[in-house]
Amino acid sequence: MRFEVLILGNSSATPIYERHPTSQVINYNEQLFLIDCGEGTQMQLSRYGIKSNRINHIFISHLHGDHYLGLVGLLSSMHLVGRKSALHIYGPAPLEEILNLHFKYSETVIRYDIIFHTNNPEKEEVIYESRMLSVTSFPLIHRIPCTGFRFSEGKRNAILRADLVEDLGIPAPYYSALKRGMDYVDPSGKVYPAAELTFPAPASRSYAFCSDTVRHPIYLNSIQNVDLLYHESTFLHEMVDRAKETFHTTSLEAAEIAKEVQAKKLLLGHYSARYKTLTPLLEEAQAIFPSTELSMEGKWFLV
Amino acid sequence: MRFEVLILGNSSATPIYERHPTSQVINYNEQLFLIDCGEGTQMQLSRYGIKSNRINHIFISHLHGDHYLGLVGLLSSMHLVGRKSALHIYGPAPLEEILNLHFKYSETVIRYDIIFHTNNPEKEEVIYESRMLSVTSFPLIHRIPCTGFRFSEGKRNAILRADLVEDLGIPAPYYSALKRGMDYVDPSGKVYPAAELTFPAPASRSYAFCSDTVRHPIYLNSIQNVDLLYHESTFLHEMVDRAKETFHTTSLEAAEIAKEVQAKKLLLGHYSARYKTLTPLLEEAQAIFPSTELSMEGKWFLV
């Protein structure tokens, strides 16, 4: 079951060196989710071959321009290419007022339903839930109200021992039940225990997105044990004072956080315009947490 | 004296094929002006090597997203890179309300002065005037209030006959006065008529920007005799009904307008997403008005 993250933008507030402001696509089992929507997101989606109308849920962390200024354009383009299905937006309360003001003055009546969900910047909450995936928002500490997001996979199915079930002549329509742990009983009443016909289910995976935030214990519990942690790393640690002042994190701090919460892998991002080359940020983090990668635009990362 | 237009975006509302929404830079004698500011304008400025802080005047035609959604991001970036000088914005009245709402919720206090000028969508008005250049806004006919802009050069200086003035021993500090038509009188009282020491001043140049609009006689007077006319040409003429319905113009109509107002040259733009190749639009216009070019992103056009 696919669970991957595509980076559309990895820049902090001033886009430079062909880097774009924050936006990411999550592909979970061919369902697409968008996190943040900086200026130019619709062009980045088109550049990387993502049809915007496959996205049904958009999560906005906070109302700094580099995290949401692409939203009005994206919503309008979805409208222009004939979208009909409802779109869910999860964001800070005033976002709805901002969108409505734009639509008012451009006299745009969006043809599809926009269902707005207000994120709570004060405490962790489940904001989306399907059979196989849930999304929680949790407080980050930034200059203005800001939330991170955690995408958590539900209990996965066990893996069917295909050779065994075939040899035993178990009818195919029962395979799905076996994978979910239900035993098979044949017409004579003989029980075939699911545990014997399957390998244990793979562990459930999770992805956490933390941008923008100063390093703070408040959100550590929300990102505990994630498989992939995206954590902003705007500065090198030599700029830690500036990071604190602007409510951002350094690369070294991001690595220490990843280690502390026992993440499997760390993804850096939200790079300051002062860094033309990003290797120093990567090296600083890898010295603490070796399993670190740079988020690079256009690249998919496995969760 | 330089008078050129750089195309930053030539797309209509749905950006595609790496085309961007509308924005143009005018360079008049090394003063930079920005017309419209679609999403991604700040990235396009950076791609084409234009320092945003050299721009002191921004003109916004109307409040459809593809003409102004890049403005908040550009203003914020100007702030972040330390702009101090005042910025003049000329646009529809509600634009100020939209900008203020963004700044309110992002808790941004812009460090430089923004001086807002409201464009009148009902009649032609001079909105900017310096010694050598004036800008007028004039009504276009679109789905919402919209204005075009005309950049008109003032009376140009005559050209000094350098060999002659040197031979006559006229002191260099008087050259500038001669070029402006003032005679030189030497210490003995002898008069040297400016007319004899100069070639006639070159004609004053003008550029008009018309986007978005349905073809309509109301604005013809405002663009009469321009040297360079940018006129939107969203569709081929086979789509003329769709053009009228959406208050846009066809390529053939743009050419007929250029001919009617006796423009020297026509620049097409605001291409619909349905056209991957633009040659048919160009050919349709050239059949009526041969001196037509396609506005291409990154290209400078002489006025």
TrEMBL record, chains A, B:
<feature type="binding site">
    <location>
        <position position="212"/>
    </location>
    <ligand>
        <name>Zn(2+) 2</name>
    </ligand>
</feature>
<dbReference type="GO" id="GO:0042781">
    <property type="term" value="F:3'-tRNA processing endoribonuclease activity"/>
</dbReference>
<comment type="function">
    <text>Zinc phosphodiesterase, which displays some tRNA 3'-processing endonuclease activity. Probably involved in tRNA maturation, by removing a 3'-trailer from precursor tRNA.</text>
</comment>
<comment type="subunit">
    <text>Homodimer.</text>
</comment>
<keyword id="KW-0255">Endonuclease</keyword>
<feature type="binding site">
    <location>
        <position position="142"/>
    </location>
    <ligand>
        <name>Zn(2+) 1</name>
    </ligand>
</feature>
<dbReference type="InterPro" id="IPR036866">
    <property type="entry name" value="RibonucZ/Hydroxyglut_hydro"/>
</dbReference>
<keyword id="KW-0479">Metal-binding</keyword>
<feature type="binding site">
    <location>
        <position position="64"/>
    </location>
    <ligand>
        <name>Zn(2+) 1</name>
    </ligand>
</feature>
<keyword id="KW-0862">Zinc</keyword>
<protein>
    <recommendedName>
        <fullName>Ribonuclease Z</fullName>
        <ecNumber>3.1.26.11</ecNumber>
    </recommendedName>
</protein>
<feature type="binding site">
    <location>
        <position position="66"/>
    </location>
    <ligand>
        <name>Zn(2+) 2</name>
    </ligand>
</feature>
<feature type="active site" description="Proton acceptor">
    <location>
        <position position="66"/>
    </location>
</feature>
<feature type="binding site">
    <location>
        <position position="212"/>
    </location>
    <ligand>
        <name>Zn(2+) 1</name>
    </ligand>
</feature>
<feature type="binding site">
    <location>
        <position position="67"/>
    </location>
    <ligand>
        <name>Zn(2+) 2</name>
    </ligand>
</feature>
<keyword id="KW-0819">tRNA processing</keyword>
<feature type="binding site">
    <location>
        <position position="270"/>
    </location>
    <ligand>
        <name>Zn(2+) 2</name>
    </ligand>
</feature>
<keyword id="KW-0540">Nuclease</keyword>
<dbReference type="Pfam" id="PF23023">
    <property type="entry name" value="Anti-Pycsar_Apyc1"/>
</dbReference>
<feature type="binding site">
    <location>
        <position position="62"/>
    </location>
    <ligand>
        <name>Zn(2+) 1</name>
    </ligand>
</feature>
<dbReference type="GO" id="GO:0008270">
    <property type="term" value="F:zinc ion binding"/>
</dbReference>
<dbReference type="InterPro" id="IPR013471">
    <property type="entry name" value="RNase_Z/BN"/>
</dbReference>
<keyword id="KW-0378">Hydrolase</keyword>
<comment type="similarity">
    <text>Belongs to the RNase Z family.</text>
</comment>
